[in-house]
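Archive entry. Fields below.
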Amino acid sequence: MKNLIIAILFIPAFVYGQYPDGKELLEKIDENMSSDSRIFTSTMVIHGRRGSRNIESKSWSEGEENSFTEYLAPSREMGTKMLKLEDLLWMYSPSTDRIIKISGHMLRQSVMGSDLSYEDMLDDKKMTESYDAVVNAEEDFNGTPCWVIDLKAKTDDLAYDSRKIWVDKDRFIPIKQELFAKSGKLLKRMEMSDVIRVQDRWYPRKMTFKDMLKEGKGTEFIVTEIQFDVPIPPDILTKGSLKK
Amino acid sequence: MIKFLIKGLIRDRNRSLFPILTVTVGVSLTVLIHCWVTGIFSDMIDMNARFSTGHVKIMSQAYLENIDQSPNDLALMDVSKVIKQSEETFTDMNFTPRIRFGGLLDAPDEFGETKSQGTVMGFGIDLFSPETKELDRMNINTSLVSGSVPSESGEILISQEFAEKLDVKIGDPVTLISSTMYGSMAMQNFTITGMVEFGTSVMDKGAIIADLKDIQFALDMNDAASEILGYFNSGMYEDEIAQTVATEYNSRFLDVKDEFSPVMQSLRQQNQLDAMLSYSEAMIGIIVFIFVLAMSIVLWNAGLLGGIRRYGEYGLRLAIGENKGHVFRSMLSESVVIGIAGSLIGSIIGLGFALYLQVYGFDVSQFTQKTSMMIPNVYRAHITADAYYIGFIPGLFSTVLGTALSGLGIYKRKTAQLFKELET
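PREDICTED_STRUCTURE:
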């Protein structure tokens, strides 16, 4: 009987001991998802109530702070450019020939009618810098064995106060994420698939975002081409490049 | 007989002065409050009809479900076809498309950089077609404080308060940042040609008006509109007819299986105006009832006092052979004369005050700064045809009722004791 009680008391410690350290997992995720710089082209497939439409763009980004995106198609969006320098975001539209600073509540608006907000696009920080992580379970997602990690924001200024992520045990890609508000309300769901090998790292070619507060079938973000750690031309990440 | 009674009333002021004064005060208050309440509610309804609801409104079913968000991604398509169908079906109405949109208005500095930005509520309305009635309907010419109404594409009107906030003046360029019908970011340059004061805080805080076609282009809404507003050609809202029109339209054109098929609602069905209309109708009834009741009690009391004062007179009249019914009827006839006189004077005074409030109104803008409801900044009384006779209802009814109640005492007098009473 005494041995049984001791065994029961030690079961949680034993089970907990099976899970890897949350911080270490986040570091491995960051190694895959973050880079010093990257250039990629993508297609955003937005599924709305009236049908779907595709938006193509090319992006240049440097570190976590700076990025530049130019929209390539369809014709109505072609030539629209977006520049993010640290916490600031500017937008240029050829039809108005104006550079507009996007701030305040506009940052919570959807990008091109997608399920992504400008805040989502600004939020490029490494996960290890933004969240504390606790591994809570292991589950299969779409046949892939995963660690289930609960993340809690380290600061108040993040777009999402907590996240629950399902991390591929072998490739360390967060193949499913649930993003929550401070109130605990589920705001967005994200799934990553088509994981490919690019320059010694795993990277998901397809990300599906679903804004849980609006109707529609979500937005697919498909990376058609990507290069990591390539030099970014110095004039790209400047306001001058918006009108070029 | 009436002449005799009138002479009696004029000669004996104790019989007429107090009751007439009471009726005058009561009737003038009834008329004034009736005009005031009618004015407030009809202004609110009229403002809603002009700016928001129309007499009837056609939208897509999906838009109607989320109407509070003005979701242009769920807007109505093939608008010209819908309008043609509607005008062919309801020949005594005219229909006009409108786009309501939200977004930001960005004013540039001399280098083209953002100088100021503000949240905007916008209207795309038909400004330029020869048959348009939108300028009158939205009181644009009378609301114009400075500048002029747009005369060509790319021009807008802006509320004066909003223009001051953005530090822009007539002739300045501004950029509208909004969402297209498909959710993309929309940016469009406009030039300010005029400033307006709409007279309702919710719009004066930050509104712009542009031509429908400009907004259709900016928001990628080709032959689409948020809503189509229908108005009776008479210009007057007629609730029952509007509801019949909506029912008939929906039975013909509504397809419940298609969330983008058009659906029509009458003014009463929108913006919680059903409650407001019912409330205004009930309010007028309640006001008349309260005044009838209050004045009846006062006049009953006055009648009792008069009865006591004229106790001897009634006794003498009964003693010399006048029957009780005749005395009672003569009292009622006197009260009718008093009621008519009091109601006439009261109506004139009440209408005078109502006319003053109709012309000058009562400014409540300081209390409505933060409201999001479409309510006017200046409340005005409204003299309707009812106002000329509505005072006579409580005026006559209460005097007759008060006299009848107090006069019942006559039937309790015992003829055998009359002379004994008169001796004392």
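CURATOR_NOTE: The helical segments of chain A are 2-18, 22-33, 118-122, 127-130.
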